[in-house]
User: Fold this.
Amino acid sequence: MAETTDDSGRGQSDTAAGPERGSDSVPGSRVAAADRAGTVSVRVSTLVRGALMVALAALAVVFAVLYFTARGELADRDEQAADNGHAEQVATDYAVGAATVNFRDLDAWIAGLKKNTTPQLAGKFDETAPKLEQILVPLQWTSTATPITAKVMSEQDGVYQVNVFVDVTSTNAQNPDGTQTTVTYTVSVDENAGWQITDVGGVDGALPMK
Assistant:
């Protein structure tokens, strides 16, 4: 009976030991699985943060490019507006001088027609001066001009075509009380030639040339 008891005891002991080993292995597996899950979670979050940083960097580059492009366009627009304004002022000053005539001092008027013009254009006025004198002196022609507005109509290679509108009040022997007309001058201003005037149209509109 002692052997039976010993065998049973060993059997019971072996049976009891079995669940204990099994219970030890289950928690270990869970810990390992949790470790693996934690490792994967860290890696995904790192990738997300990295992707977010790349996206933010790309957005920063895009916004920087847009900002500097817009600033360059604004600078170009401001420069073009300033150049247009300068051309319009040059053309307006010339038109007012061209429309201001006093038959008693035509030399001063001819000098005004030639002011700030290219040598080629100034030469044309020298040629027409005697003809103008033959018309204006007998008529006792006088006129004054008031600018209305000026507008750059086109620009090509630094040459501005400007339309200038002026009110011209004139008196002469036939109309001593004076008449008023609106005259349009077309003035070409060349930035490359120091903002000189290369051509003028409409001068005869303020004079009795027809």
